[in-house]
């Protein structure tokens, strides 16, 4: 049975930035996320998205190297599911891993 992942509205906004091609990530075990070239203000949320399997680097990178970030299949499913919901963004969204 897949695990459920709870995300906040901030994390949802970060997923939208990744989907729009505006994000980069580092190759470290605790990846940092950069949006529009700036370090994300909530790196805990960025790491949560990476560890939940919603976001990943597009290719290999060193710990300090930035590479484009992309949504994983579960990340794309979550965005699509929320886009088709009546409100577009429930207070707490869940995704299956």
Summarize the structure.
The protein is α+β, with helices and mostly antiparallel strands and 97 residues long. The protein contains three helices and seven strands; from the N terminus they run βαβββαββαβ.
Summarize the structure in words.
- The chain has 97 residues and is of the alpha+beta class.
- It is built from three helices and seven strands.
- It has helices spanning 9-19, 43-51, 73-83; strands at residues 4-7, 23-26, 33-35, 38-39, 55-57, 66-71, 93-96.
- A five-stranded antiparallel β-sheet has the order 4-3-2-6-5. Strands 1-7 form a two-stranded antiparallel ribbon.
- A hairpin with a 2-residue loop joins strand 3 and strand 4 (38-39).
Poorly predicted tracts of residues:
none
The biggest beta sheet reads: 5 strands, antiparallel
Structural class comes to: alpha+beta
Average the pLDDT over all residues and give the rounded result.
87
- Oligomerization category of the chains in this entry: single chain
Strand order of the main beta sheet, please? 4-3-2-6-5
Instruction: Calculate Rg over CA atoms.
Output: 13 Å
Number of strands: 7
Write down the secondary-structure element order. EHEEEHEEHE
Shape: globular
The percent range for helix content is 25-40%
The fraction of residues in strands falls at 25-35%
For the record, give the distance between the C-alpha atoms at the N and C termini, rounded to a whole number. Answer: 9 Å
Helix count equals 3
């Amino acid at each position: 049975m897949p695990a459920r992942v709870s995300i906040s509205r901030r994390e949802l906004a970060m997923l939208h930035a990744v989907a729009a091609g505006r994000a980069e990530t580092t190759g470290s075990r605790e990846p940092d996320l950069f949006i529009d070239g700036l370090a994300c203000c909530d790196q805990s949320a960025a790491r949560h998205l990476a560890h939940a399997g919603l976001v990943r680097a597009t290719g290999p990178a060193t710990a300090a190297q930035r590479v484009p970030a992309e949504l994983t299949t579960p990340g794309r499913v979550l965005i699509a599911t929320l886009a088709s919901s009546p409100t577009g963004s429930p207070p707490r969204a869940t995704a299956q891993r």
